[in-house]
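Task: fold both queries, return tokens.
Query 1:
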Amino acid sequence: MRPGNIQSGAGQLKDATEKLSLAWQSVREVWKDKQAVEFEEEVVVPVLEEVANLLPAINEISSVMGAAVRSCEE
């Protein structure tokens, strides 16, 4: 697997979470009850936080893999 494949996947993941965030903002404008708050706290926020924590790790893995590939090609 080439390191670029990991970055491509990370980009797709980032795009998807941005779409989720925008969609959730739109939904929250009309869904204003207790269940909306619970859904946000139990589902939306944890997903967004998990992805935010994951993306730097993916970038680090990509860098390490890139260095390993370059080293093997020498």
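Query 1 returned. Query 2:
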Amino acid sequence: MEMPIKAPEKYYIVSVEQYLAMLKAEKVKDCFSGLQYLSTRDSFKDRIIVVRTNVAEQIRSRYNVTRRAFYGANRSIEFTSQTTLDTVDN
């Protein structure tokens, strides 16, 4: 009997404040690749981190890095422009 494949749970980041609070709670270094570091933590092992594009751009500008450097450093993170994330509760 085959086990059904379960899709990984998604964790949505919809504000810079939420991102900064997560960094502090997980004791992750505050840097432009912080999302990548978060994704490797045990509490996010079986989850996909999804970030709104406008929030990602705010995070990127906070560290004053190029788009290539930011998105390259956070390549395992899913970025989306969906406005439906405004109604998502974590």
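Both queries returned. Flag for query 2: The first strand starts at residue 9 and ends at 13.
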